[in-house]
Design goal:
Elements: H1 3-6, E1 14-18, H2 28-43, E2 48-53, E3 63-65, H3 72-82, E4 87-92, E5 99-103, H4 110-124, H5 133-156, E6 162-167, H6 174-180, E7 185-191, H7 195-203, H8 207-210, H9 216-223, H10 226-238, E8 241-244, H11 247-256, E9 263-264, H12 280-299, E10 310-316, H13 326-342, E11 348-354, E12 359-362, H14 364-397, H15 412-425, E13 436-438, H16 445-452, E14 463-468, H17 483-489, E15 492-494, H18 504-511, E16 516-519, H19 523-531, E17 540-543, H20 550-565, H21 569-582, H22 588-604
Parallel strand pairs: 1-2, 1-6, 2-5, 6-7, 7-8, 8-9, 10-11, 10-15, 11-14, 15-16, 16-17
Antiparallel strand pairs: 3-4, 4-5, 12-13
Helix pairs in contact: 3-5, 5-6, 9-10, 12-14, 12-17, 13-20, 14-15
């Protein structure tokens, strides 16, 4: 794509994009910032850089310093350094190589921070607690970002249009002073999820019905997030253009932040990062075999089932039992298990819960079973070679061309070792439902549900559970594969969230050619239903949760899972093709037009 065509929708301006998660992986906004960067670098019409906090030397391997560069950002950074601040100007070594300015919030002395916090209260009515490390860092970062923008205005000169885009309350504080001082800078503020919304959704059973009636100040005090909520509220009120990532969150913003967003900016992915061109069907088969290995090690010491008739489902994300829909998923799985048992179905479902919890270690029994299976593999490999050599010798020396008795070629030592190894691996205990020893195991809601509903990996259960309370990485002794590879090896992702401003997990599934379940209360699910009426044909399932009871939604999800299981293998292959074809609609190059709209609005507003 030519540069002239790329910049067609962007106003000619100097653009800075500010976020706490620039070069600082904390949560989902990091994925937004990082995956969007190559498209931003291609499409912006003028100088562009991102601003984030400098959180330590660990980031240096991802940066190429630009400290001597004399563009407007280099000059502004140099001027701040001359004033004694710790400022890093560099290329971020990701696709697109965007320029980044990293400001160190930890070098602001306590005395100076007290003055900054006093002015924040005096000028804007934002009170801040004394002993709150994150708020202190956020206030210091906001102060430094404002100083940088001051310098940027000076070096840019008159007549240069400057746009400053701030993500979330942790980055948005400079908006307040930019507005107060009537600076020649247009501001855009994006909230990805409201501070109050996340807390209320966890604690209020009828969150969406009650949205118009919450008193934001009372609720903020109740949850101990007064400062965060006030900053977010004031940023939304004072920015020139207010955006959020979905229509679902827009309704939340209208009631909790007192302003309806001007533009919706849906999240996308840099699809090329996930796409393996024409190989994704082959990759599914390859990584499914690796998941088979784990399943054999985890289950087959107790009992076996047919891996060719086994379907792998998974859910993943931050541990928010209700918000992420873990509770609904478990209820639907229990119902599915009962139905499959009643039907005497000849297939098995293995459901993986992948999330992050505090744990002491991997359970020794899980590691031991895996190690013993490896011992069996090595024993079989030796026997295979021994038999192969002897069989070849026999085939060249015997006059009889019938196949000899292969058992005769195995030495007594290896026969005995084989029997002992297999015997020591076999167990009469049930396969564990969790792979790790949790710190607070007795209060874990997933485990409580499994015990209460007796969904404990019994031989007769058609639905098996593997709860893995840690991220899946290539260094994991249980899987030995990356999370993206694990996703490709599964058949279906299950994410029926109750509160999900956007929801990257089903989008990542789509980009990997894996069908998934989402909900109409997730931003992604809502976007799907509004823009793609044929989504179900293409392997995307949307659970209705907005106007339905928990019981109704559980029944619907259970039914959708059952329908998915009863498809033929050919149907599933077709579905993977359809899902993968869909993913281009969520490429940043397609969705960047929403950012263009927000910048145009700010530029001409």
């Amino acid at each position: 794509m030519s540069k002239a065509k790329s910049t067609a929708g962007f106003p000619k301006s100097t653009l800075v994009e500010v976020a706490w998660e620039v070069c600082n992986q904390v949560g989902g906004i990091y994925t937004v910032i990082r995956s969007k960067a190559p498209t931003m670098a291609e499409y912006v019409n003028g100088p562009f850089c991102m601003i984030g906090p400098y959180m330590g030397k660990n980031i240096h391997s991802e940066l190429e310093p630009l400290n001597d560069v004399q563009d407007v950002f280099g000059q502004a950074a140099a001027n701040l350094r001359k004033r004694g601040y710790d400022v890093h100007y560099a290329e971020w070594l990701i696709t697109g190589k965007p320029k980044v300015v990293l400001l160190n919030p930890n070098v602001i002395e306590a005395k100076a921070l007290s003055v900054i916090k006093y002015l924040l209260w005096k000028n804007h009515g934002v009170s801040t607690p004394d002993a709150h490390p994150l708020v202190n860092q956020v206030v210091a970062f906001g102060y430094l970002t404002k100083l940088f923008i001051d310098e940027l205005v000076k070096v840019s000169g008159k007549g240069q249009h400057i746009l400053a885009h701030f993500h979330e309350w942790m980055a948005g504080l400079p908006i307040l002073d930019i507005k107060r001082e009537k600076m020649p800078v247009k501001t855009i503020f994006t909230t990805h999820a409201t501070q109050l919304g996340r807390h209320l959704a966890i604690n209020s059973p009828l969150f969406y019905a009650h949205l118009p009636f919450f008193d934001r100040e009372v609720e903020a005090r109740k949850f101990g997030i007064v400062t965060e909520e006030v900053i977010e509220f004031k940023c939304a009120q004072h920015c020139d253009v207010f955006t959020t990532v979905s229509d679902v969150t827009a309704r939340e913003c209208k009631h909790l932040l007192g302003r309806k967003p001007d533009v919706i900016v849906p999240n996308g992915l840099n699809i090329e990062r996930f796409e393996a061109l024409h190989e994704f069907q082959n990759l599914h088969a390859l990584y499914k075999k690796e998941i088979h290995e784990f399943v054999m090690g985890h289950f087959f010491h107790s009992y076996t089932f047919d891996l060719d008739k086994t379907i792998y489902l998974f859910t993943s994300g931050r541990f928010e039992y209700r918000n992420k829909g873990f509770d609904l998923t478990l209820e639907a799985l229990w119902r599915l298990n009962e139905k499959l048992k009643a039907e005497k179905a000849d297939l098995t479902v293995v459901m993986f819960f992948v999330t992050k919890r505090e744990f002491y270690s991997i359970k020794p029994e899980v590691l031991q079973s895996r190690a013993m299976m490896e011992e069996i593999r090595q024993t079989c490999s030796v026997i295979e070679k021994e038999v192969g050599r002897a069989l070849f010798n026999a085939s060249t020396t015997h006059t009889d061309n019938r196949l000899p008795e292969l058992n005769d070629f195995v030495s007594d030592y290896w026969k005995l070792r084989y029997r002992r190894t297999v015997q020591s691996w076999k167990s009469n205990k049930l396969p564990m439902v969790i792979t790790h020893k949790l710190v607070n195991e007795e209060s874990d809601e997933i485990l409580q549900f499994l015990v209460r509903r007796n969904l404990l990996n019994r031989p007769e259960d058609k639905v098996k559970i593997v709860y893995h309370p840690d991220f899946i990485t290539s260094t994991s002794p249980l899987f030995g594969m990356d999370y993206g590879q694990f996703v490709r090896g599964c058949h279906l992702g299950v994410f029926p969230s109750y509160y999900e401003p956007w929801g990257y997990t089903p989008l990542e599934c789509m980009a990997s050619g894996v069908p998934s379940v989402t909900s109409d209360l997730s931003g992604f699910g809502d976007y799907l239903t509004r823009n793609f009426p044929d989504y179900e044909k293409n392997g995307m399932f949307v659970v209705e949760r907005g106007r339905r009871t928990f019981d109704w939604s559980a029944r619907q999800l259970s039914g959708s899972l059952h329908k998915f299981l009863t498809q033929t293998r050919r149907d599933r292959i077709m579905q993977r093709n359809n899902v993968e074809n869909y993913s281009s609609s969520f490429d940043w190059k397609t969705l960047i037009r929403h950012y263009q709209q927000a910048y145009e609005l700010a530029h001409h507003g």
